[in-house]
C-alpha cells in the first residue's frame, strides 16, 4: 500500500481537536494536494476549480438541451471550447471482462466530518457487461414506491442501491430511466445522467432525448459530481434544475445521506452509499461526496437520490444505517431504523446461480487514500484449530532476551525488535536470516506497526518521548507523535489515525499519522488508574476495527475493554467484570481480531492464547500452564497472523518467537468417523480437585486415546451426569491438574456435556480426564470422538505418582514405605495414648518388647565377648562390636518409633529428627549386619590358612575394619538426609476459611530417577552383600574342612566328610539364611511404590517392618548359643560378675 496523500481533515469539514497533549505544533496549516488527470492542461484545471464567477445563487426553470449546451459554452468561454469533445457529456470505454459470475469488491467507508463519524458502503463491479442493471419497481415506475430490498429480492440482485429521484407525494419517477434496453421514462429533465450504451460505452452527463434510444441502461440524477477525475459540483450546480428538491438551493451543501454512481479508469462501475441525517446536519455534502469518489478512483460520477432514500442491500439484507425512523418510534432510537420506499434501483446480479459467483468479499475499508489494512485478518471456518505443538521460529540468539514486539504484514514479512542489540529485525520472503535495521537514536521499543508501503512506526518513548516513523524508501526518520512514556501498543486505523497505548500513564492517545502539528487526543482512559468504564489500568495491546471501535487489553484490570467510536466510556466484553466470565484473564497483554471479529487474546500471566467467538470461548494455545515445552508458553506478549492463518507469538519468558500452524483439515467435516466409549463413575473411582486448590472431591476416570494419524478430533459427552473434560499429553498428575494440560472444556455451551476440539498425536500419549461438574457425583457416561480416522479408548487404572497433603499443598511421595507411612493415618492427633487405636497400642508394646530383648541380647553378647581370650582373634572383636551396634540399632529403632508417635499425636516437630533418625537407624543396622558378615569371612579365612593363620594380623585388621566400616556405610546412605525434609500443610474446614484447624507435618524423602536407582542398588548391597558373605563363608568352611579331613582320614570318602561337616556346622548355613529371610521384609517395603495404600492392610505392613529388625536382637542366639566355647565363656563371665556383686 502506498502512502496516502496528505489530505487535510479540513477538506471534510472537520476541525482538529485540541484535546490532549500537543508537541511541536506548526503555525502554518497543511495544504490540500491538487489531484488531476495528466491529460488535462493547466487552463482546464484552473477553469474547473473556479467557483465564484460561475456560481449562481438561484436556479432557473427547466432548460432545453440546446439552452443548457449554450450556457455551458458561455461558461467555458469560446477559447476553451475544444477542451471537451462533447461539451454536455463524457464517453468512456467499459471494462470488457466477461465472466458468467459477477466479480466485485465491497468495502466499508469511514470518514470524519465536523467531529462526526460517517459510515458508508462502496462497491466496485469488475465486469459490468452482463452484471449491472438499472431496475424499475416491480409494479412499474409510476405505479407506487417499494422497498429497495423488495425490488432486489425479486430481481435476484446480489448488491442493490436506491437510484433515481421520485415525487414523494405521487411516487412517480423523475428523470430518465432505461432498464435493460427498455425505455421506462424519458421526461427530458436535463440533469446529470449515467448510462451504458448498446455498444458498451459509459456516457455520463446531459443527454439529448433523441439519443436515448442508443442506451441499454440509463438513470438520471441531480449534480454531476466528478468529470474527468475532477470535482464538477460547482459547475453542475449552476446548470442543473433543483426545483424538485425539498432542500432547494441548499441541496449541494446540506449534510445528509448520499448515493453516487460512476466509473473508474479501468471501465468498472462504482457505487457509493453514505449514511447521514439532514435533521442533525450529519453526512457529506456534495463537494465532499465528489472528493470521496475521486479518492476512490472515479473518473466520472453523478449524484443519485439520497437523504432518507439512501439504501444499500447485500444478499437481501439492509447493510447501511438509514436515517428514517420506524413509525411510532423516536428518531433518536439507534435500533428503530426503517428503510424508505423508493422507485428505481441499481442492481449487481449473476447470470448463473448466486452461490456460484466469484467475489472479493474482504470487507475492507477505504477512506481518502487508505485502501487496505497492512496486517492479516484471516477469515476462518466455524471450527478453526491450530496445532498446539509449536515450532520455534526465532530463538534468543536471534531475537535477544524477552522479545515484546511482533508484526506480520500481508506479504508475510515478519518484524520484531531485538531489544538487546537495539535493532529492528525483518524476515522477507521466508528468509532464514533477518534483515537488520538500526535507526538513529533507536533505544528500547515496546511496539511497532508497519504500513503497506513498508514504513515502520515504532515506539521510542521510553528515553526519547516520541513515536518515530522509519520511511523505507528513503531510509529516513520522521517524528510522528510526542508522548510522555513508552507506547506499549501501536495501531494505525484505516483513516490513518495513529493510536498509542501508554501503560505507565493509563491512557490511549491518538493522532492523525500525517499531521505535522502532531496534535494528540484521548481515545480511551483518563490518565488515572482505575476500573471504571472510562478508566484503564496499565493498557497494553490495542486493536481498532473497521468501525473505528477500539479494543484494549486492560492489563492490570484483567479484562478486555471495547470503546465504541467517539465514546470514552468502555464496555467490558471479556474478563473481570464482564457477563462472560467462563474463562478468567490474568494480565492480558494483546488483542487481535480476525475477519469475523473473533477475539484472539494473549492471556499473559496464564501463559496461553484465548479465542473468543460468538458461542465458542476456549484456550487454543498454551493450555497446559507455564513452561518451555513446544506446547507451552511463558509470559507471552503479542501475537500476529500470517496470510495462511498461522499464529506467531512472542514467547517473552522463553525469549523466542513461536509459530503455531493453522490446521486446514480442522474445517473438513466431509468424511467424519465416530468412535464411542462408555463407562460408569463409581465411588471406587479415585477423586481429585479440578481446580488444584479446592477441598471438594470429584470422581474422575483416566482414558488414553490412541490414533493412527495426528489430526484434529471433536470429543463430546452424552451422560446422565454433568461432565467436564480435560485433555493431557503424556501423563495426568492429580495433585496439580495444570501439569501437561493441553485443552479443557466445560458444560458452558453444551447443557452439562463437555465438548472439545483437540489435536491428537499418534506419536505421544493422549489422555482424556472425564470428571463431573459437581463434587461427589457418580453415574454413567458416554464419550464420542469424531474425526477423519478412528479413535480407540483405553481406561488407565493406576496413577503414575502418589502424593501426600491436600490439593492446595502437596508433595509427591518417593518409592518405599517407612514407619511414618504405616502409622500416619492410624495415629489420632491430639489424643492420649490410652485412646489410640489398637494397632498403635500393639505397636507400642512390640517396640518395648523388642527394645528389652535387644537390650538383653546386647548385654549377654557383650559379657561373652569382652573376654580377652575370645578377642585373640578378629572374630571375637567383630562380635564384641556387633553386641554394641545391635544395642544402638534397637535403641534407634525405639527412638524412631516414639519420635513418629509423638509428632503425629501433636503438632510439635523437629526437622533435625526427620533428617537424622532414620539415617542413623540404617547406619547402625547396616553396621551390625556387616560385622556379622565379617565374622563369617574370618572363620573362612582361618579354615583356609589353617596353622598359618596369623592371630595378631587378624586383630589389627578387625580394628581397622570396625573403624572404617561406619564411614563407608555413611558414604553410601548420605543421600538420604540430603533428600529428606519436613512436609507440612494446614487443615481448614474448607478452602475459603482463614482459620487453620491443625497443621500436618510428615517426613518425606523424594528422589530423582537417578538417585532412586542408586538408592535401590544400596539397599540390595547392604542386604544381599552380608548374606552372600555369610553363605559362601559357611560353604567354604564346610567343604574346605571336609577336603582337609578326607586327605588325613582316607578311610572315609569326601562326601562322607562333607555330610559330617555340614551336621557339625549347619548353624553356619542356617543362621544367615534365617537372617536373610527376616531381613527380606525390609527390602520389600523399601522398594514398594509410594502410592501403595498402606491403610488397607496396616497390620501386614507393621508386622513386616518389625520383623525386619529382629536380626538385630538375635546376635546372642545366632553366635553364642550354638557355640560351647562361647557359652562356657558366658557362664564364666556371669560367675565373675556374680562374685564381684556379692563381694
UniProtKB/TrEMBL annotation:
GO terms for biological process: secretion of lysosomal enzymes. InterPro entries: 6-blade_b-propeller_TolB-like (IPR011042), GPCR_Rhodpsn_7TM (IPR017452), NAGPA (IPR018711), NHL_repeat (IPR001258). Residues 1-15 have a biased composition (Polar residues). Its main location: membrane. PANTHER family: N-ACETYLGLUCOSAMINE-1-PHOSPHODIESTER ALPHA-N-ACETYLGLUCOSAMINIDASE. It comes from Adineta steineri. Keywords: Membrane, Repeat, Transmembrane, Transmembrane helix. This is G-protein coupled receptors family 1 profile domain-containing protein. Residues 856-1119 form the G-protein coupled receptors family 1 profile domain. SUPFAM superfamilies: Family A G protein-coupled receptor-like, NHL repeat. One of its GO terms (cellular component) is membrane. The chain crosses the membrane at residues 838-865, 877-900, 957-975, 1017-1039, 1068-1088, 1100-1121. NHL repeats lie at residues 623-663. It is found in: Membrane. It comes from the Eukaryota.
